[in-house]
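In the design runs reported in the main text, the only information available to the sequence generator was the tokenized backbone. The following block is the verbatim input for one such run; it is reproduced so that readers can re-run the procedure and compare outputs position by position.
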């Protein structure tokens, strides 16, 4: 396990495999793979078998949480790697308060996007 893997594991409380995500969303696994490919979801290889997994907090109410896709696009445009995006989304931000992913789950996406845009400056 690399240092970044350990850091992300410490930050992200729960993970879902792609078939689990497909079940939560009520779609085929191929659709979940497409969401990952399009950058609407982040999946990283984890565990002994290096299985692709998505943070469980990205899914809520049978869909990808509102605002996640746009936030990921902003971070990617800022040059963030998937691991750096996960680290940013799951790190406490006292100005929010809480983590950016929690703010997204609480429908406070505008605040999260504003902070993501500020990173580009």
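Verbatim output:
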């Amino acid at each position: 396990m690399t240092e970044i893997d350990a850091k992300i594991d410490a930050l992200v409380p729960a993970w879902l495999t792609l078939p689990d995500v497909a079940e939560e969303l009520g779609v085929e696994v191929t659709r979940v793979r497409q969401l990952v490919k399009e950058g609407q979801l982040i999946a990283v290889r984890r565990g002994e078998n290096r299985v692709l997994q998505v943070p469980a907090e990205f899914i809520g109410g049978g869909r990808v949480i509102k605002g996640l896709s746009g936030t990921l696009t902003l971070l990617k445009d800022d040059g963030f790697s998937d691991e750096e995006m996960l680290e940013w989304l799951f790190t406490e931000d006292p100005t929010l308060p809480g983590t950016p992913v929690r703010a997204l789950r609480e429908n406070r996406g505008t605040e999260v996007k504003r902070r993501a845009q500020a990173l580009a400056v």
